[in-house]
């Protein structure tokens, strides 16, 4: 029996805990799992509109359908929408992957989402059968022929018995399942080619590109193999293939030439196309402009070329043969015209093929296009039966559908216009009196080095730099990802490009652009497996103590998450000058410490950056009118309220199992426990205090004056980077971060330095990327730290305010800390309802509290936190 097809769909997944769970921190109204019975009950007389797919058409419909009139349900194997025009840029590092993604699940979403594949549809009973896709091994990768086909009937029945299949009724069905990547059944393409349809493809391409250069740089790699590895083939001369070739050329000429100057001579880019010309949808003059531009840049275009096969291994080496090294480090592309050619990577972009769901589950039930086999619709986007009659409650749009009598291209522009039109008509209930009309807004393509081509239906053609600005601006205007606007429109160095992470096999996020402060010792590295940095945007009402006070500020909070939101939530805030990467990784990351006490498999880890700390909104990264010295002075309260909004509004976390911070992070632990007493169950303050003492405040005046007395500081403004001021700041800061015993015992020798000066030069001299304004603004926040300000009625009585804290508290100073001495901590613990004190016996001073002391110091922290949490 032939397997039944599955389409771009979804299945229910419990991403939040049930109410009976021990750590059920989310209210019933915030649960994101649901049964079909509950879904039916919530229908409340509305028509259920099921949208299959989360591409340009499906995502738009899920957002725009009126939930007061309909019950929208989006079913897709992908839990996110991909802004496909940006994929080429993300694959080369010009943009971060997150700029091309938008999750389907959002707290303000009005559509229910299930992640899975549709196996079948009964158009008479109006019923779908759906199979889960949560554990799909090809998640986030391009769909090629052969994927998405279900098992035989016996296997299918077994999965159904295991709860992997479910049925769902609908009133209206909208099919937007898209298409698969066309391979023409070319041998080896499905297995060895690199596609560019999803973010996973972009990641795979970037990693392969980097590994090609790294392998070529090895002394064991022969010159011939270097030629193969750095020969990049692109099959397909459409906009995707051309734009990716342009992006690839830019990164090689602008970045790899600096990192691998001896290898650039081997680099080669070749575009293959079976047609006699590339960019056939463009005007002939624009296509010629693109070809001429490529020729000048050294990109070879080979038209009228027919690819026969793609296999692993070097030319002349049989796959699986004796030459194991050559057989596993490159590929062989075989064409009728050129024969075998060794390539490091082959990116395949040759068009689309029909989705198996359309081809097998619907082919006998709907009318299909004679050549493409796409679903035929009328002018209202309603699906036609084979006898030309119309299904009034079934619609199809996007790449999987064709409006009869038209030849609209299979583009995002067409899909988006159809989805917007259909959602408006359904919301108004006037679809029978209207017909869809397409407005051609033009086509664009990037051709490299700030040049683009633009073809419009009425305004003429544009090429060059002007077209590039229009191209970038158009994606800015049409992007569904407002938080990413600045990052892809005027990203620093684009061009010249910003590829700081490009030389690392595991791409580093831009948050690691500056050195750690204070630097961790070699035994405690930064987090190794760094995730993509996320940003939470929030209109923050500044606190009464902020400057300016009680105004609204468009704040951006940088954060990482690890693990499942259904697990107990742990928040780790960064410290002064800290980064997401060096914020207590030894507590949760196995790369930093085997068997951590807070593994993401058991806890939902949230790591946040400080305002003014360079990763979240800061003087150094905030656009006008809040850039540089115009950035507001923010308090701990502002940071805590922003973190609270992230948890409750974005992540769905109503209560934290643990809030643990070091230094300024430790002070935040006190502040969150005082400001939101019901929000935190357990609090750990590592080398911090509830109120910045007079002694601490006075110390901070020293490094502050080192910055404001710098020769480049005039009337509150730095006229140029304050390199000398920053160096002076660090030298003032250094002795206070450690202890007299540390200097007396010459502990710099333990860190591998012969002299104290060598240590200070390497670790306490500032460095490129450290912004003086960021340092100043953080000092201001630190100096203003005082939890009694939340309760004016306490009249500054710290003991009274400490008594308001309901969380279980572990206060953990270092014996030799000169910022937050243990005597202050002992006094604070006396007034806590449920507080305990532990002390790190060390000469590493303040630094020991963050894991930058000795291995014994860090083990002491781990042991006491584990005991405190009763783990």
TrEMBL record:
<keyword id="KW-0560">Oxidoreductase</keyword>
<dbReference type="InterPro" id="IPR029058">
    <property type="entry name" value="AB_hydrolase_fold"/>
</dbReference>
<dbReference type="Pfam" id="PF07992">
    <property type="entry name" value="Pyr_redox_2"/>
</dbReference>
<feature type="domain" description="FAD/NAD(P)-binding">
    <location>
        <begin position="48"/>
        <end position="418"/>
    </location>
</feature>
<keyword id="KW-0520">NAD</keyword>
<dbReference type="GO" id="GO:0005739">
    <property type="term" value="C:mitochondrion"/>
</dbReference>
<protein>
    <recommendedName>
        <fullName>FAD/NAD(P)-binding domain-containing protein</fullName>
    </recommendedName>
</protein>
<keyword id="KW-0274">FAD</keyword>
<dbReference type="InterPro" id="IPR036188">
    <property type="entry name" value="FAD/NAD-bd_sf"/>
</dbReference>
<dbReference type="InterPro" id="IPR023753">
    <property type="entry name" value="FAD/NAD-binding_dom"/>
</dbReference>
<comment type="similarity">
    <text>Belongs to the NADH dehydrogenase family.</text>
</comment>
<keyword id="KW-0285">Flavoprotein</keyword>
<dbReference type="InterPro" id="IPR045024">
    <property type="entry name" value="NDH-2"/>
</dbReference>
<dbReference type="GO" id="GO:0003954">
    <property type="term" value="F:NADH dehydrogenase activity"/>
</dbReference>
């Amino acid at each position: 029996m032939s397997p039944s097809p599955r389409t771009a769909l979804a299945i229910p997944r419990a991403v939040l805990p049930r109410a009976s769970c021990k750590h059920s921190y989310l209210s019933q109204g915030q649960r994101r799992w649901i049964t079909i019975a509950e879904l039916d009950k919530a229908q409340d007389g509305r028509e259920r509109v099921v949208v299959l797919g989360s591409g340009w058409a499906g995502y738009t419909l899920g957002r725009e359908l009126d939930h007061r009139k309909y019950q929208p349900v989006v079913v897709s194997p992908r839990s996110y929408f991909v802004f496909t025009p940006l994929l080429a840029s993300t694959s080369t590092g010009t943009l971060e992957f997150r700029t091309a993604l938008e999750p389907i699940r959002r707290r303000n979403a009005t559509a229910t989402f299930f992640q899975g594949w549709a196996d079948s549809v009964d158009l008479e009973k109006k019923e779908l059968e759906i199979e889960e896709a949560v554990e799909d091994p090809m998640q986030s990768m391009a769909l090629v022929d052969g994927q998405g086909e279900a098992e035989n009937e016996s296997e299918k029945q077994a999965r159904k018995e295991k709860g992997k299949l479910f049925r769902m009724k609908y009133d209206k069905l909208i099919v937007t399942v898209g298409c698969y990547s066309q391979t023409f059944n070319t041998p080896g393409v499905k297995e060895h080619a690199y596609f560019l349809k999803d973010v996973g493809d972009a990641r795979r391409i970037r990693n392969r590109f980097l590994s090609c250069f790294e392998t070529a740089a090895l002394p064991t790699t022969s010159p011939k193999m270097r030629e193969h590895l750095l020969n990049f083939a692109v099959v397909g001369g459409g906009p995707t293939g051309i734009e990716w070739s342009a992006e690839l050329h830019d990164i090689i000429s602008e970045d790899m030439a600096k990192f691998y100057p001896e290898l650039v001579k081997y680099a080669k880019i070749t575009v293959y196309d079976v047609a006699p010309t590339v960019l056939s949808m463009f005007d002939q003059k624009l296509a010629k402009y693109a070809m001429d531009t490529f020729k000048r840049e050294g990109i070879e275009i080979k038209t009228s070329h027919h690819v026969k096969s793609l296999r692993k291994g070097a030319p002349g080496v049989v796959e699986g043969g004796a030459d194991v090294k050559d057989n596993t480090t490159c590929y062989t592309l075989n064409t009728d015209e050129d024969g075998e050619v060794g390539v490091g990577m082959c990116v395949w972009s040759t068009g689309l093929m029909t989705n198996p769901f359309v081809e097998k589950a619907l082919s006998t039930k709907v009318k299909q296009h004679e050549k493409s086999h796409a679903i035929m619709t009328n002018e209202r986007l309603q699906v036609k039966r084979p006898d030309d009659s119309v299904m009034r409650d079934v619609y199809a749009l996007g790449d999987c559908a064709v409006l009869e009598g038209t030849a609209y291209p299979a583009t995002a522009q067409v899909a988006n216009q159809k989805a917007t039109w259909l959602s408006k008509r359904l919301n108004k209930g006037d679809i029978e009196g209207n017909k869809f009309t397409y407005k051609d807004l033009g086509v664009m393509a990037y051709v490299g080095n700030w040049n683009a081509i633009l073809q419009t239906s009425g305004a003429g053609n544009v090429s060059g730099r002007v077209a590039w600005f229009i191209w970038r601006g158009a994606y800015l205007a049409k992007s569904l990802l407002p938080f990413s606007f600045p990052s892809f429109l005027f990203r620093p160095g684009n061009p010249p490009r910003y590829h700081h992470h490009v030389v690392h096999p595991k791409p580093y996020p831009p948050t690691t652009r500056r050195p750690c402060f204070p630097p961790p010792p070699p035994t405690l590295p930064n987090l190794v497996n760094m995730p993509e940095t996320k940003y939470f945007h929030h209109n923050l009402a500044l606190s009464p103590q902020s400057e300016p006070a009680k105004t609204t500020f468009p704040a951006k909070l940088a954060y990482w998450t690890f693990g499942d939101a259904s697990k107990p939530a742990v928040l780790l805030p960064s410290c002064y000058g800290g980064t997401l990467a060096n914020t207590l990784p030894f507590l949760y990351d196995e790369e930093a410490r085997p068997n951590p006490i807070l593994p993401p498999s058991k806890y939902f880890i949230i790591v946040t950056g400080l305002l003014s700390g360079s990763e979240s909104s800061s003087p150094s990264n905030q656009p006008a009118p809040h850039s540089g010295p115009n950035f507001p002075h923010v308090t701990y309260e502002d940071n805590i309220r922003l973190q609270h909004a992230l948890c409750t509004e974005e992540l769905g976390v109503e209560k934290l199992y643990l809030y643990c911070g070091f230094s300024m992070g430790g002070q935040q632990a006190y502040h969150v426990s005082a400001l939101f007493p019901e929000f935190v169950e357990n609090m750990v303050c590592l080398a911090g205090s509830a109120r910045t003492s007079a002694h601490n405040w006075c110390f901070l005046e020293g490094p502050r004056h080192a910055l404001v007395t710098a020769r480049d500081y005039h009337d509150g403004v730095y006229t140029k980077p304050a390199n000398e001021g920053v160096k002076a700041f660090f030298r003032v800061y250094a002795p206070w971060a450690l202890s007299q015993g540390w200097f007396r015992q010459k502990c710099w020798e333990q860190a591998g330095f012969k002299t104290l000066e060598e240590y200070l030069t390497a670790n306490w001299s500032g460095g490129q990327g450290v912004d003086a304004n960021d340092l100043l603004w953080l000092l201001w926040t630190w100096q203003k730290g005082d939890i009694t300000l939340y309760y004016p009625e306490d009249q500054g009585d710290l003991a009274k305010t400490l008594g308001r804290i309901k969380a279980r508290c572990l206060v953990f100073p270092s014996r030799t800390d000169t910022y937050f001495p243990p005597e202050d901590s002992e006094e604070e613990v006396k007034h806590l309802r449920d507080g305990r004190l532990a002390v790190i016996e060390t000469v590493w001073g303040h630094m020991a509290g963050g894991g930058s002391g000795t291995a014994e110091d860090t083990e002491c922290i781990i042991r006491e936190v584990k005991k405190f949490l009763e783990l």
